[in-house]
Design a protein that fits this description.
This protein is α+β, with helices and mostly antiparallel strands. The chain has 2 domains: 155 residues, Ribosomal Protein S5, domain 2, CATH 3.30.230; 105 residues, 2-Layer Sandwich (Alpha-Beta Plaits). Strands 1, 2, 3, 4, 5, 6 and 8 form a 7-stranded mixed β-sheet that branches. Strands 9-10-7-11 form a 4-stranded antiparallel β-sheet, with helices on one face. Strand 5 and strand 6 form a beta hairpin. Helix 2 crosses helix 3. The longest helix is centred in the middle third of the chain and has 16 residues. The radius of gyration is 19 Å and the shape is globular. The N and C termini lie close together (9 Å).
Length: 281
Amino acid sequence: MLAVSYAKINLFLEVLSELPEHYHEVNTVFCGIDLFDSIKYSLTKSRRIILWSSIAELNGEDNLIYKVASYLKERYKVSSGVEIHLTKRIPIASGLGGGSSNAANAIVMLDRLWQLNLSQKERHEIAARFGSDINFFLEGGTALGENRGERISPWDDILLENILLVNPGLKISAGTAYGAVEIPVPGEAKLFDPQDPIATMFNRLEPKVRSMYPMVDDLLIALAEFGARRSMLSGSGPSCFGIFDSEEALKKCQSHFHELGFFTHNARTLSRREYQKCFPS
């Protein structure tokens, strides 16, 4: 079975409070986008789980795909094995949710391959064990994420085009970004308006990340100078995105970042119906 594993951007991310175990309470708006990894699943007679990736450092047992597969195999006493081939296109540790998306994809596809017959509620319970963003990728489209991000409420699609993703190749851990955030006092938290998404885009993590990582600050300034209507950090970064009025303006900006050697992608958001096609039946 061959599946695609889509990335996401956060159109909005407000941090409301600290939670136990170094987590934070957030109010965030996820949108699935058309950048994706490819994952091939093959049943084997061996009882082993074998994971191959186009990026060697992802081949180990620390990969979320492997962790999910191991958990499902042990919990549901699965006798057959599986060989999984991952072709990465989403930059690693980029704020675009590649690892979380891969994990959600593995939950759904292994459920089908191993005929576990999990309910969507059970899938969500499993996803929440392994991370805060994984639950969104079980739904896709546009959704509100609450608590630490794992409580998902699907929204009407927010469809946007001419989104330039730029990743400068930095490594910024979520722990670093959240550890530096200044939590707003009650009554001063920002709000998102789905009827006016571009005007109300916001990321509470962005100011501190920009101050700690000047390259991110320079990147966001350049997006604005090349004509992006709005530009913002996605998640905890380092990926940023700008929304342009035209593909022509976007391509001029994209050429600039290509010359700098940065990863770029001309993206659009996906409807929930489009997104769900990533899980072939």
